[in-house]
Design a protein that fits this description.
Blueprint: E1 9-12, H1 18-28, E2 32-35, E3 46-49, H2 54-63, H3 66-75, E4 80-83, H4 85-90, E5 91-95, E6 105-110, E7 121-125, E8 135-139, E9 144-148, E10 153-158, E11 161-167, E12 170-173, H5 184-191
Length: about 200
């Protein structure tokens, strides 16, 4: 009987804080691969869309034809996790201002809704289905999820607002779990790869 193949997590690496997600996966002991071109999707079982600047990220996604590759990956029922800008990219609707997006998840997101860079903060949030303890959440020019579709489940809240949501194998966080020492959110995402 052969051994089970270890899952490899792709991390979109066109712009943003992809290195911090890689460091988190290193701590957990999970293999990862940077995704910069369409051919990099070969051999990955899940994908992380990191935080960064969505306008810049969209430019790279268009130039390198990665947007269609990401949509196809998600449509193939593969797990995708977006943090901050990654969550914006995943949204069906983006406000303030409207912009292009991948439209993977039935949520409406307002960009930079917490304010400017100086308004960034670290808060404690409740994610009862993910952790019995409050989770440290780092918000940097974070978006706010203004609407969730009927297929979307709210897993976490901070100050009464949804900050962690899932839809099937899709997971989106408006905060940066990779900037803390807490592996809970990444481990929850990795569970989605078990039957891939």
């Amino acid at each position: 009987m052969g051994s089970k193949k270890e899952k490899v997590i792709g991390i979109l690496a066109v712009q943003g804080d992809f290195a911090m997600h890689a460091a988190m996966l290193d701590r957990i002991g999970v293999p990862w691969k940077l995704v910069k071109h369409v051919e990099d999707f070969e051999g990955i079982d899940a994908l992380i869309l990191p935080g960064g600047e969505t306008t810049t990220m969209l430019k790279f996604l268009t130039e390198r034809k990665l947007a269609d590759a990401i949509k196809a990956f998600a449509n193939d029922n593969k797990p995708v996790f977006g943090t901050c800008a990654g969550a914006i990219l995943m949204a069906k609707e983006v406000l303030n201002p409207e912009q292009e997006r991948l439209g993977l998840m039935d949520i409406s997101v307002e960009r930079n809704a917490y304010g400017r860079q100086i308004d960034s903060s670290v808060q404690q949030g409740e994610c009862p289905e993910v952790s019995d303890e409050p989770i440290e959440m780092v918000f940097i020019r974070a978006p706010i999820i203004r609407r969730v579709g009927k297929e979307v489940k709210v897993l976490g809240r901070s100050q009464g607002l949804p900050v962690l949501v899932e839809q099937g194998k899709l997971l989106a966080a408006t905060f940066h779990p990779e900037l803390t020492g807490d592996e809970t959110i990444h481990r929850y995402f990795l569970e989605k790869t078990k039957d891939c």
